[in-house]
Write a structure and sequence with these properties.
- The protein is an alpha/beta fold.
- It contains 13 helices and 15 strands.
- Strand 1 and strand 2 form a beta hairpin.
- The longest helix is centred in the first third of the chain and has 19 residues.
Length: 353
């Protein structure tokens, strides 16, 4: 796996080019592909002529056909899942996950852990229990398609070798009420040999607070002496770091990940260097629009080969789940081009003048 990751580090541009060609090829007979003349697209310059940038609202007419059960709209066939996220302006947002894109989410999460082991030589976390604080794995159906929160969908695909050690149990994971769920997780995990915890920092902080209260204010390191690794994503950790380290009792190793319903975009591949390694061979072709141009009529769009360091870009995705010229709403900044590493720098809406 480390060879694979190193290959991706060194060959980002050709891998992105290969991904681009493959995506266009696979989607040329979809409704979107026909409407945007994918059959005539040979280069990225062609693509920009035919495919405008869109945010969720602008892609919504296509998404609504997908969620109504139509086939071959944005991607061949129907999605394997629909992830449900609470959009800020648009109410509930549904983002498709395809049978091609689902394995990429799992592979990136696995590679984040394997990179850590390779770099640090520490693999003891795999010998004890692992907690995934996540959404409910109970999925609803929408037009026959399994629908739920990303973390709940991912729960169904945790690899076997992690499955046997993972907590909470399925029953506890299914509790919808978050307050009750945290209490149940505390009861279920308090006596276990917890070694890795994964979740968004505010959820983990709440879990730590309740766990500590159960043990008369003990630090987490005294409750779980082998707890060595915290994996998080979805929010900036810095505002939480001091309090988390205070609760745990030491500065724990952390792995930052950048998973979104739209795709698993990047992960921290080093404990000593900043930044998240962009996933260049994961069924996603990336575009970047300078943040200060994003709201212009005709903003600059560049692919990975033309990005500049330390410049804010709106992140644009083209994916093997059928998102095209899609603005995910985040801004990123490259802090390295060898390999390509980013930090998530904010939200694009902050650039509306």
């Amino acid at each position: 796996v480390n060879r694979q990751i190193n290959y991706q580090r060194k060959n980002a541009i050709p891998l992105q080019q290969k991904t681009f060609i493959k995506l266009i090829q696979q989607a040329k007979d979809t409704d979107f592909g026909k409407a945007h003349n994918f059959a005539a697209i040979k280069t990225y310059a062609d693509f920009k002529k035919h495919v405008p940038l869109r945010d969720y609202e602008e892609l919504r007419p296509y998404i609504e056909r997908v969620t109504a059960g139509e086939e071959n709209v944005l991607w061949p066939g129907k999605p394997a899942y629909l992830t449900k996220t609470s959009g800020t302006t648009s109410g509930v947002k549904y983002i498709p996950i395809s049978k091609e894109s689902m394995p990429e989410h799992i592979k990136a999460a696995r590679n984040a852990l394997l990179s850590y082991i390779h770099e640090t030589g520490k693999s003891e976390f795999a010998d004890g229990k692992l907690i995934f604080l996540q959404g409910s794995p109970i999925l609803a159906k929408k037009a026959g398609i399994d629908t739920g929160r990303l973390s709940g969908i991912v729960a169904h695909h945790v690899p076997g070798y992690l499955q046997k050690n993972r907590l909470p149990s399925y029953e506890v994971n299914c509790i919808e009420d978050w307050e009750q769920k945290v209490d149940a997780i505390v009861e279920e995990t308090a006596k276990e040999d917890m070694r890795l915890i994964s979740g968004i920092p505010p959820w983990c902080q709440m879990y730590f607070d309740r766990l500590s209260a159960k043990f008369d204010g003990k630090k987490i390191k005294d409750i779980f002496p082998n707890f060595k690794l915290f994996v998080y994503g979805g929010v900036n950790y810095e505002p939480y770091r001091a309090r988390m380290e205070e609760s745990i009792g030491f500065a724990i190793d952390t792995i930052e990940t950048y998973p979104a319903s739209e795709g698993f975009i990047a992960f921290q591949d080093s404990q000593t260097e900043k930044g998240l390694l962009l996933q260049v061979d994961a069924g996603m072709f990336y575009e970047f629009v300078p943040s200060d141009e994003y709201f212009n009529d005709n903003p600059t769009r560049v692919s990975l080969v033309d990005v500049e360091l330390n410049k804010n870009y709106a992140l644009i995705l083209n994916t093997n789940a059928g998102l095209w010229g899609y603005s995910i709403g985040d801004t990123v900044k490259f802090i390295s081009k060898d390999p390509y590493k980013i930090i998530v720098s904010g939200r694009i809406k902050h650039y509306i003048s």
